From TrEMBL:
InterPro entries: 4pyrrol_synth_GluAld_NH2Trfase, Aminotrans_3, Aminotrans_3_PPA_site, PyrdxlP-dep_Trfase, PyrdxlP-dep_Trfase_major, PyrdxlP-dep_Trfase_small. It catalyses: (S)-4-amino-5-oxopentanoate = 5-aminolevulinate. GO terms for molecular function: glutamate-1-semialdehyde 2,1-aminomutase activity; pyridoxal phosphate binding; transaminase activity. Pathway: Porphyrin-containing compound metabolism; protoporphyrin-IX biosynthesis; 5-aminolevulinate from L-glutamyl-tRNA(Glu): step 2/2. The keyword Cytoplasm applies. Transmembrane segments: none annotated. This is Glutamate-1-semialdehyde 2,1-aminomutase. The modification N6-(pyridoxal phosphate)lysine is found at residue 267. One of its GO terms (cellular component) is cytoplasm.
Length: 428
């Protein structure tokens, strides 16, 4: 039986880990069935505990741009590990990766490393509040910025997949400072700003949303946010945890030519190890302890293994512009192929894509915000997901997630994926 060992491992895990997983989306609850337990991964493929191989489109939710177990990254980690794994003291490699990141990303002079995307976003908002002396923030429905209390208001990703976009445990006091806006709706943002004049510290946004499917900003939206922020003395915080170093070397800031005041990173910047970071111009970063009054810290922050992996990853991305073009072409090819076979099978669908991020939605109207994303047919998605899984294609187990391509994927892998979609399309 397929998934035999995964099922057994899942049963064991559920006895000692809530839901059997350490992060909810992994549990397959939205699509049903047993989560696949990963034994190992290499390049574009993962192998599960039952020795079945899959072509991979999650890529650790973004960071494995160069594929799994990429040799330069693994070598760097192994070499570092031999010299000790954590000191809680400064090391040279932290400055090296900081210098490289600052040179790759526009509008930042300084960067602080943390251990996750959640920490990066949480710290960025604290810094924005400390710097502006204001309390409120605007976030967008369907955007996910990690599981820190203030962000769990109409959050995307697993929070919405599991029906808790507003999580119990978040106090009214915290929730009242999070103002909720509609993605891609500038008028709505304007109204909120006017209703809260002088009280808003920052607008935090996924400049290309990836946690309600992939939703690129409509023309003029980010430019409009930038102008509103300038006009009302609000900091614009780009959460580039998914998009940073993926959509371009300098992320969405570079790709779309919009500058943010604070930028958050995660996943990619650690080459797949637990890392996050936030960055800004010197004037803002100087508000952080020990230079300034805004406190932020971490025992494992700047961990040598994580820095070694991140540095190896960023060095390669920095040296090879062709990676971004190649990823873009592969994603375009996949988009075209999937659109053709779904259209031929009369399956109503929308495909959103930008760079190497793509999502397939089973609905009639274009998906431009959380409300339109939520209109997708979940029964069709479930069949689509399981059909592909059976055929050895692993996509994210929720319609509110994005597929991430790695450059390790070959055109043969993409053709196999399109063929699998063709076979599944008949059942949708
Ligand atoms: N921001 C965005 C845009 C994310 O996609 C995520 C995680 N998927 C986070 C923040 C939180 O990162 P982490 O899971 O590393 O805490």
């Amino acid at each position: 039986m397929e998934y035999k060992r995964s099922s057994a491992l899942f049963a064991e895990a559920q006895k000692v880990i809530p839901g059997g997983v350490n992060s909810p989306v992994r549990a397959f609850k939205a699509v049903g069935g047993t989560p696949i337990f990963v034994k190992e991964a290499k390049g574009a493929y993962i192998i599960d505990e039952d020795d079945k191989q899959y072509i991979e489109y999650i890529n650790s939710w973004g960071p494995m741009i160069l594929g799994h177990a990429h040799k330069p990254v693994i070598d760097a980690v192994v070499e570092k590990a031999k010299k000790g794994t954590s000191f809680g003291m400064p090391t040279e490699i932290e400055t090296k990766i900081a210098e490289l990141a600052v040179s790759m990303v526009p509008n930042i002079d300084m960067i602080r490393f943390v251990n996750s995307g959640t920490e990066a976003c949480m710290s960025a908002v604290r810094l924005a509040r400390g710097y502006t002396g204001k309390d409120k923030m605007i976030k967008f429905a369907g955007c996910y910025h990690g599981h820190s209390d203030a962000f769990l208001i109409q959050a995307g990703s697993g929070a919405v997949t599991f029906g808790s976009p507003n999580s119990p445990g978040v106090t009214q006091g915290t929730a009242k400072d999070t103002l909720l806006a509609r993605y891609n709706d500038l008028e709505n943002v304007k109204e909120i700003i006017l209703q809260n004049e002088g009280e808003i510290a920052c607008i935090i946004i996924e400049p290309v949303a990836g946690n309600m499917g992939c939703i690129p900003p409509v023309a003029g939206f980010l430019e409009g946010l930038r102008a509103l922020c300038d006009e009302h003395n609000i900091l614009l915080v780009f959460d580039e945890v998914m998009t940073g170093f993926r959509l371009a070397k300098g992320g969405v800031q570079e790709l779309l030519g919009i500058h943010a005041d604070i930028v958050c990173f995660g996943k990619v910047i650690g080459g797949g190890l637990p890392v996050g970071a936030f960055a800004a111009r010197k004037e803002i970063m100087s508000y952080l302890a020990p230079l300034g009054p805004v406190y932020q810290a971490g025992t494992l922050s700047g961990n040598p293994l994580a820095m070694a992996a991140g540095l190896a990853m960023l060095e390669e991305l920095n040296a090879k512009d062709e990676i971004f073009t190649s990823l873009q072409k592969k994603t375009e090819y996949l988009h075209k192929g999937i659109a053709e076979v779904l259209t031929a099978a009369n399956v109503t669908h929308q495909i959103n894509r930008i760079g190497s991020m793509i999502s397939v939605h089973f609905c009639e109207e274009p998906v431009i915000d959380f409300a339109s994303s939520a209109k997708g047919n979940n029964d069709s998605f479930k069949k689509f997901f399981h059909g592909l899984l059976d055929k050895g294609i692993y996509i994210a187990p929720s319609a509110f997630e994005t597929w991430f391509l790695s450059d390790a994927l070959s055109y043969e892998d993409l053709d196999k994926t399109i063929q699998a979609v063709k076979e599944v399309a008949g059942e949708l």
